[in-house]
Input
Amino acid sequence: MMLWSGRFKKETDERTNDFNSSIATDSRMYKYDIEGSIAHVTMLASQGIIPVEDRDKIITGLSEIKEDIESGKLIINSAAEDIHTFIEQTLTERIGDAGKKLHTGRSRNDQVALDIRLYLRDECDNTVGLLKKLLDSLTEKGEQNSEVIMPGYTHLQRAQPITFKAHLNAYVEMLKRDISRIEDAKRRMNVSPLGSGALAGTTYPIDRKMTANLLGFDTYTASTLDGVSDRDFCIELASALSIIMVHLSRLSEEIILWCSWEFKFVELDDAFSTGSSIMPQKKNPDITELVRGKSGRVFGDLITLLTVMKGIPLAYNKDMQEDKDAVFDAFDTVKLCLITLVPMIDTMKVVPENMRKAALTGFINATDCADYLVSKGLPFRDAYKATGEIVALCISEEMTLETLPLEKYKTICKLFDNDIYEAINLENCVKKRGMIK
Ligand code: ARG
Output
């Protein structure tokens, strides 16, 4: 029987029920639904709205439902409309009339708004925990390779010498911002909507501050309409998660390049690579390709949320039921990527010789050559031009800045002396920039 059977003369069509049901998605919030209900009845009893004996029966009943779901004794009925309905109906079946008092002064609208916040609060912590693991493993990999010189790139053209540590540190900084974005969004979300009722609050003398405190919220929503209608926090989190995926995808793209025979800067462990069904020589970086690909899912989740929310009038509308699939998927995807990337990076072998080999060609110390001339008194633009001519000379003579004889240097600019070789030495170039400490 439906919750609303009093008003209706007919049973709802099976297709309506199937279409309307969200239990396949929201059953994962059962723990939070029960936690919210326990806080709600605790407040109801303390305000004298329901008897203390009923509160105790409800709390015992809800705690047993939680245990039974966890032990597998109680199977969540996939035919129920949603997890809120399933738990309330199961409670009433088990404890009788007291169960019917649980929903006093509450609506599923504030209930669901509460459950998502509680669920996402934990998801924020889980995700931050995983981001910290990735941050640690990149920091560690950087430490192990703090003196490994590689070409730094712009336009994917060799640009200036850097260390592998400096390269990875850029990702460490991105991850720090990612963590702070999730933490900021979590703080803004940490406001209890309970007590908003369907939209206009309730006539019962409820204590919103008490339920907010019991559930670990900083405060409760100032507007009851906003309390049930706000899904900004889902959008904000999906946006923070999308930015995380941008970062993971860029890192993945680089690892894909580095694994290729063209670069061979790194080698992935066999345990974190895959082979081909036909080409026996292949070792593919599938994990990183999937991370790159899955970024599309998370961006899609963000667009879903924005689109679902943009045109709906206040307050609750059923469209909003679509929020959970999107925001849950975004969290699931990011967590899955992080769980797999961390051990892949931990076991990734770096090939310093190949990085160095690449750093030795491409004239990545040309800026240092120009800076050398500046130190000898030449204005930078003239030094830049002279160095460009040196590079052109090297290309035509098939030489590098390191192998070009001093006499040749002098044909372009008299200021060159023997100390040019020290100035363009790759180690010195990175040291001068403070990259090797
Ligand atoms: N399953 C619903 C959702 O996820 C719960 C709220 C239902 N409220 C309502 N008035 N139909 O949004």
